[in-house]
Amino acid sequence: MASFFDQFMSPTLMGIPLMALAFVLPWLMFPNPAPRWINSRFLTLQSWFINRFTSQLLMPINVGGHNWALVLASLMIFLISLNMLGLLPYTFTPTTQLSLNMGLAMPLWLATVLIGLRNQPTAALGHLLPEGTPVPLIPVLIIIETISLFIRPLALGVRLTANLTAGHLLMQLIATAAFVLLPLMPTVAIVTSVVLLLLTILEVAVAMIQAYVFVLLMSLYLQENV
Amino acid sequence: MADRPVAIAEKRLMDVKLGELGTWIGGRDFTPNGLIASLRKGHDRYYNKYINVKKGGIGGVAMLLVGYVALSYMWEYDHIKHDRWRKYH
User: Of A37, A187, B62, B70, which residue has the fewest beta carbons closer than 10 angstroms?
Assistant: First the structure.
C-alpha cells in the first residue's frame, strides 16, 4: 500500500542511492561570476541577494564574528536552494531528513559554545543567569538556562525537519483530496484554492532558512559580543 | 573549403557518420574522469548559451528546472506507479 510518506524515502535508481545528486544540484544553480565588468542578469540578481543578505546578517555582530560570514552565507544559500528546489513536483528534498539537519545544527552550535567558552569563559557562563533574578531563584534558573542551552541544536534541527516535512505532507494530502473530489463535487474550487494558498505559504520555506540562520546567529553573537 | 582531417573519436556526435559510430563509441573516454569531464563540458555549453548572457530571461533557468522535474519523475516512477486508480494493485 503506497503511503503518503513515500516521498520522503531516499531516492534510489536500481539500488544506487541518488542522495548525492540531490545534494549537488544547488551547486549548479550558483555559477561562478565571469571575469567581466557586468555579469548576466541571473548572476547579478544572485550576487545582489547574497551581498544584501550577508550585510544584513553581519550587522549586529562585532568584528570578531565576521570570520563566520562565509559559513553563514553558504549555509543560507544551501538551505534556501534545497528547500526551494524541493517545492518542484516529483523532486526530493534532502532537508526533510532529520539526519541532515542535525548534522548541520549540532556541529555549528557546538562551535559557537566552544568559541565563547574559550575566548571569554566568564561572560559565556554569565549568560546562564539573567540579570535581576531574585536570589532564591538562582539555582533553579541556572538549571533551566543550561537545559535551554543544550536543547538549542535539537531545536534547530527538528524545527527545520518538522516544518518542511509537514508542509510537503500537507500539500500532498490536499492535492489528493482535490483530485478525488473533482468528479464528485465542485467544492473542488475551494479546495484547489486552499492548495494554492498552501503552496504560497510554503514559500515561507524561505522564512524557514531565515529562522534557522537567525537563531544560529543569535547564539553566535551572544557569545562573541560584549 | 575541405574539412581538416580529425580523428574519428574526437568528432562531435552530430558529425560522425553512421558507419563510424562503433569506432566513435569505442574511442570515447568512459573512465570516471572522462564522464565527469563530459558532464562539465555539456554544462558549460548550456550555461554559456542560455544563462550567462547579458539579457537572459527566465528561460535558461526554467529549462534546467523542468529537466530536473522530468528526471525526478523518471527516478521516482517505481514509487509513483502505485498511485494510479486501480481496483487491484
Answer: A37
